[in-house]
Structure formats: C-alpha cells, structure tokens
Amino acid sequence: MVVQDIPDPDALDWAEKSLVAASKGDHDEAGELADRASDAGSLLGIALSTYLRTSHHQDVYDQPTAFEAFIAGGGNVDLYQRTSATLATGYPGIGSLLDIGCGNGLALVPALQQSVAAPGGTAPSMIDLVEPGADLLQHALAAIAGTGLPVTTTAWQVGLTDFLRSAPPGQRWQLAQSTFALQSIEPQERLAALTVLSTRVDRLLIVDFDVADEKPRSRAHISGLATRYERGLAEYDDDVRVLVAQGFLMPVLLGQLDPDGVRTNWEHTADQWREQAQEAGFRDVQVLPLADYWSAPAFVLGASGR
Question: What radius of gyration do the chain's Cα atoms show?
Fold first, then answer.
C-alpha cells in the first residue's frame, strides 16, 4: 500500500471548490479549479482534472478492470480479508447461499475456502450469484470453479430487483449476503427488494460502510468527500491510481454530486442500514464494527428473515 501525505490545505481547498462547482453542474469551472488543485499537489485535483476533461459521463462499470484493481489494492486488501473471514463464520450448516452483487468473487471465494479448511468445515452446496456486470460475474464463476469445491453455482446477470422478479417463486435461501453492493441500489428500490427478500431467506449478512449523515451537496458533505477521496487515492501507486481514479472512483464521487451525472451509490450510517433492514421485515438485526477504512468504518449487519 502506498502512503502519501495529504497535500497542504490550499491544494485540498481547490479540490473542494472544484467539487462545489461540479455539484452545481458547472463542469468548466470545476475543471479549472481542479487544475489549480492539481498544480498545488492534490491527487484528487489531478484525478478530477483528468476525468472532467477526458472521461466525463463514463459509467462506473464501463471498465471492470478499474474496479478490480481498486478492490485488489490499498486498504481494500485488509478490508476484504476481514470481510471474507466474517462471511466464512456464517457458512457452517448452510446449504443454500445467495450472494447479491458478488463482483468478481473477491470476498466470496476466500470465505468458501476458509470455511472448508476449518476443522469439520463445510461450504454451501448451492450458490446463486447475482451480479449485473458480465465480466465480473464471469470472473466470479471462474474463481469458484478454480477452487474445485463441489458447489452448484447459478449465475444471474441482473440487479437484485430484476432477480427477485425472475427467480423461482418458491425458492428460499438459508443465507443471503451482500458485500459493499446494496449501496448501489436507490434506497426506496432497495427497501422494496429487501422487503421481498425478508420472506425468502433465513439469514441476511450485509457488509457496508458507516458514513456520516450529512445533507447532500452541503459544504460539510463536500469537504468530507474531498478529504476521504484524497486519502483513498494516496493508497495506490501512480499507474494503478490513474486506472482506479478514472475508471471507478471519479464516476462514484461525481455521481453523488453532479446534478447531470449518473448516481451509482447511496451511502448511509450504520443506524440507517439497521432501520431499513427492520422496516423491510428482518428480525433480530444486529450491527457490529468490522474494519477501519479510508472512506468510512466498515460494519457487518446480521438479521433473521421471516
């Protein structure tokens, strides 16, 4: 992991001002302010300047290699190790597993291997993978096949809402899990999907981030984003940072702010995640801390279905 000091306050201030302009839809001013942040030494400024002038309006998953490079480096290494270890503790005695937003299997596959490696350990014998990204889904399937585990895997290249509409109506899973994926679903659509899911699973595990509840596009919100993303970009070396920034982090960041952009995630506090799970009908909802992370602390939510 590359560790780099946060630039002087003036550099980060220019980056914040660039985000403010982007939040007002003024891309030209945002680009000019990003240039100033870049000149002053801000990694976020460099990333914003490049993205605003060359890659604007690119979808966050247009480059799955960027997402895969992101989760394979920086603070994600420790984060995913902790996540996999936590998932593995829920597998003993589980025959059917639903993984929502499995990505390339980076959390799932090590969890399966750890579960089997434990004394008397087993892994789910039937797994349904739900992942809208075609390349990511194929990588997950290949990774599971590469373990040699006796697992029957069904792949669904759709989002959760469409999956629940098309899955066999009588099918039920002993465990459903989702790691850093449900934040990509608009909150009301997510609530509707979780409400349906609560009637079709015995247990639910969600891993996500406990993000401060701030008014969208407020100065406090933008200042926090600038500081967090500056820190996150510093965890990658120069070559990987360009790929990660342009193919993943900048679309995610600007999607939260740009009124003309495509929003790709909705972040919440852990308490809000708990409340939504309860509103959806899940019982015995518990939230525990999982790991520190540059963006926000990660947590694991466990609950029982109906």
Answer: 20
pLDDT by residue, tens only, the chain of 306 residues? 444 555 577 899 999 999 999 999 999 999 999 999 999 999 999 999 999 988 655 566 656 899 999 999 999 999 999 999 999 999 999 999 999 999 999 999 999 999 999 998 899 999 999 999 999 999 999 999 999 999 999 999 999 999 999 999 889 999 999 999 999 999 999 999 999 999 999 999 999 999 999 999 999 999 999 999 999 999 999 989 999 999 999 999 999 998 887 888 999 999 999 999 999 999 999 999 999 999 999 999 999 999
DSSP 209-269: EB-----TT-HHHHHHHHHHHHHHHTTS-HHHHHHHIIIIIHHHHHHHH-TTS------B-
Residue with tokens 């708990």: 274
Ordered by start, the domain boundaries in the chain are 9-56+216-257, 70-211+267-304
CB 189, CB 165: distance < 8 Å? no
Please give the CATH number for the structural domain made up of 70-211+267-304.
Answer: 3.40.50.150
